[in-house]
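Predict fold of Calcineurin-like phosphoesterase domain-containing protein; 252 aa.
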Amino acid sequence: MRLFAISDLHLDYAANREWLQQLSRHEYNDDVLILAGDVSDRLALLDEAFGTLTKRFSAVLFVPGNHDLWTTRERMHSSFEKLDAVSAAADEHGVRRDIFRAGDLAIIPLLGWYDYSFGAADDYLKAAWADYRACQWPGHDDVALTRFFTERNPTPSTPLLQHAGQIITFSHFLPRIDLMPERIPDKHRKIYPVLGTTVLDKQLRALGSSMHVYGHSHVNRRVMLDGVTYINNAFGYPSEAHFTTRELVQVL
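Predicted 3D structure, encoded as tokens:
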């Protein structure tokens, strides 16, 4: 068994859908895929992705990203309703949203959002960031929403994690802001407050994770920090093809 990872497929773009459909139907049949969110805000395209990938991999492991929970094009009342619909689509195709065990290996999905532990949102970000308009979370601000998601994540005492010799975790959102390289220009750092939460890093370390796969930033890298290997393999938008790999990455 090999383990591959990808995130941010953004299937709203035809070129991205074409790449998905050309994936080999035979090469990955014994392998597992981590799909770390932002497939599409359209349920029909999400359903297409789940159907395509489960025909190619022995298991597909998924966490939703922020784009997956947008409500505008589906005309749903809330992003909680959208989350239920996304979860139902995953379950219908056998896409895994729970802990995956293979021998002594455990792969753990971690839900999250952003709580401004990476910085405060200024007026520019509040006007520019689409989530503020495309998501609807009645009764929850972003801090409460982060708590809503992260409190649902497994803990070290979860029975399925007993006797695990190797633990890999994955999330859509970043668990620490220093995963962003120093070369990022100041003008692009304005989005840092909405990239993730430090709660995720505390959780993955409490779980004993040696590797963490994440998405969201569209800045692909593999780096070890404080004993954990962090990997981002975002497919990204067609306009980002000059700096994203736009291919599966084998992580194990």
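The two ends are 9 Å apart (CA to CA).
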